[in-house]
Amino acid sequence: MKHLYVKHTVDKTDIYRKLVALPVPHGEFTYESTDIIAEGDFWQMNQHTISYRELLSMYEDGYHTIEKEEYDRAEAWLKHSTNQG
User: Fold this and answer.
1) Which of 37, 40, 56, 61 is the most buried (most CB within 10 A)?
2) What φ, ψ does residue 49 adopt, rounded to 5°?
3) How far apart are CA 45 and CA 27, in angstroms?
4) Integer Cα distance of 9 and 39 in angstroms
């Protein structure tokens, strides 16, 4: 797996995730997740690791696969919005 891009919208908050398989898993954590969270004009980014079980649970919770370009647009908007201040 190269990269996996997913998105979920809850209560007018968009959550974009780029998931990258770790070259060497850390226990049950097998993916690095870079999240972009967009709630109105408030945008933030964070990184953490997740397990395969958490990945499956995300799909059960309503996440769906998106194209890399959609994630890239969200990342560009995040960078643009944080440079406005």
Assistant:
1) 37
2) -105, 150
3) 24
4) 10
Is 63 in contact with 6 (CB distance < 8 Å)?
A: yes
Task: Please name the amino acid found at residue 25.
Answer: P
Whether the full predicted model's pTM is greater than 0.90, yes or no, is no
Distance of alpha carbon 14 from alpha carbon 20, whole angstroms:
20
CA distance 15 to 48: 14
At 18, the amino acid letter reads K
Sign, Cα dihedral of 3, 29, 78, 66: positive
Distance CA 20, CA 8 (A): 18
Give me Rg for the CA atoms of the chain: 13
How far is the C-alpha of 84 from the C-alpha of 64, rounded, in Å?
A: 30
Q: Which two tokens stand for residue 48?
A: 């953490």
